[in-house]
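Subject: sequence -> structure tokens, single chain

Hey, anyone have a minute? Need the predicted structure for the following. Not urgent.
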Amino acid sequence: MDERDSRAGGARLATPTADVLKAAIREHQAGRLAEAAGLYSQVLADQDANVAALHLLGVIRNQQGDHAQAVELIGRAAALRPDVAIIQAGLAEALLAVGEPQRAADCARAALCSGPDDPSVRWILGQALEAAGYHKAAVLELVQAIRLNPEFAHAYNSLGNSLRSLGQLPEAKAAYHHAIRLAPGLAAPYANLGVVLLQEARHAEAREPLERAIELEPTRASSWESLAELYERMERFDVSIPCRERVLALSSGERAGPHLSLGRALRKDNRSDEAEGHFLRAVAIEPASADARFHLGVLREEQGDFAQAEACFREAIRLRPDYDLARARLVKLLRTALPDADLAALVDRLGDSAMDTESRVRLLFSQGQVLDARGEYPRAAACLREANALSLTLARGDLQFRPETADQLVDESVQAFTRDFFIKATGAGLDTRLPVFIVGLPRSGTTLIEQILASHPRVRGAGELAQMQHTFESLPSLVDSDATPAECVPRLDPILIRSLAGTCFNRLRELGGSQAERVIDKMPENYKNLGLISALFPSATIIHCRRDLRDVALSCWMTDFLSVRWAHDPAHIAATFRAYLRFMDHWRTVLPATIHDVAYEETVADLEGVARRLIAALGLEWDPACLEFHRTQRMVCTGSQHQVRQPLYRHSVGRWKHYEHELAELFAALPPPLPSDLDRRPYNP
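Reply:
Had a minute. Here:
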């Protein structure tokens, strides 16, 4: 508060009220807000139209977060003295806080007309215009504020926000960096810089400014939300969950949003019971929330309760007819059973030229899969070709697939995981048979094999766990190196190997519970991490799922994958398959562990033979429940959750032939498969 505030009341007060006001102003200037507020209230009890007391008590209420009360008090002062710039500016700030940007802008303009060209008032006006959606006008006001005060860090931060709204991300980042240079102790520009880097999918760079923002202002909920989003994009749900819990703790009142976000992270981290509690709480708090219905529907679908999932998706669409994500999920759920009216509604939605690209992609994938299920292959191919082409336009920053990176990872892994490495690592890992790793390309049958094995009463399927990839990525920090993870492998000593194995084992034990003798991690892309897996768990069972590469390629190309960055371009698919084949060739050469190959085609042709062989590989006695895998009630969180809840069918074998002409380019780009004799290699314990 400055001297202008104390003069805003105009007329001299009679004693003792004047003395009380002076005392209040002294307390206010000293930062003792509660004491000052009490004294201002005394003045108003004696003189309810005292402009100075009304204004200054309103300022305190705004500082304390009671913005509605601030608007009421400062508004009364402004009605009495509309010509006082400082009062109009204070009212503008309070109105901005309660979400009335148009009125705030009017008050800020009135302040500029009544008083000097104050950079702080220009800043408030710029923020109000930005909040009202007038981004270009906001930029003009904020630039003027900076001209008046080149050291105005807050104005630079707000300028960055307006530039970001206009899509001028490089300019926005420059404004945030300028704000940080001027005020390194200000949290907002760090947080906003992190958000822009997230928009650009530059995840590695986004982490530092977001963590700095939280360090400076731990109670800033939006920074915790952004950090949680960062970890979720990196598929580090175990780390995002504490961030989401902090957001929930910082929320004022009960809102559905924080419960939904926390529930999503818990679901992704295989904590479905906790997730369900938060989804149900969100529905209770906000029964008309389409998002709450949708996420509850996703959980029900993964639990195998398809009727309830359909009901949730339909309710979400009823609450929000343009909810394309729910519509896409409903279409994929029903597929061949989809009523014609629902397909017509999907086609009608696709006719909306204003639809955003991501929604269009989802609906095109859904339409393509329904047409495929109906045997309309040329029309399906046309939809899927457009969906994949649009998906490529969405990839940017860290989300872009680079074939050279895949080749480099294979080269580094081949150099790191040698026979000599495994000889030196002998005895360092944890000698336990608890872990079972099912690996292979996506859509190669990994979910089916997990469901078969998890139907055994002594086996628990834990789903797709990212812990081995995260463990691999953590190696540079563990050995204090700037090298790549693979380059750090030779520095792993027995103590570190045993420590890493213990951490991973504890997580598997936690997921498996006390009764499980085997716990399955069926992350397909762990085929890249078999070297580390074998070092940590030399007695683990490794099952490699194989399938005709043409069927795998087609299935990946037809699937609306969120995290499989290579699945939308034939050249990218081919590059990934070549890297995969190189990995598997290398592991067969150097791993001391046995890799149990199982072909999808063999599983379909001889379910019992394959199931018995794999149960024997796990070191367990046979249980006929494995043949009734489709009756097993458990969470299945992959795109194959429908197939594994049905008896085994054979129409997915050779499916690529339906698209032999339409997708000739895709099939021609694929590398030749491994020797066919591996498909039926007998089990050799």
